[in-house]
Write a structure and sequence with these properties.
It is a single chain. The protein has one domain (3-61): Orthogonal Bundle (434 Repressor (Amino-terminal Domain)), CATH 1.10.260. Helix 2 crosses helix 3. The chain is built from 5 helices and no strands. By secondary structure, it is mostly helical. The longest helix has 16 residues, at 3-18.
């Protein structure tokens, strides 16, 4: 799991909860499997830009709202 995936998942979960959606209801509205939604929120998978926009639309926020703050990542691990 990358730091970015973990932070993105945390932001998605917080936004979902702020609008009162269960993970299951959110996944249903986003037309993705609930178990996949769980992996996204736990930072276990990378998502596409298209899915980022889809999830943001379901929650009613802009995609950049879900992205982690770059200041959180002053020291990113090297890319593999």
């Amino acid at each position: 799991m990358s730091h970015l995936s973990l932070a993105l998942g945390r932001n998605i979960r917080a936004s979902r909860k702020s609008v009162g959606l269960s993970q299951e209801a959110f996944a249903l509205k986003a037309k993705i499997d609930r178990s996949y939604m769980g992996r996204i929120e736990r930072g276990e998978t990378n998502i596409t830009v298209e899915l980022l926009f889809q999830l943001a639309g379901v929650i009613g926020v802009t995609p950049e709202t879900l992205l982690p703050n770059p200041n959180e990542f002053d020291e990113l691990p090297p890319e593999r």
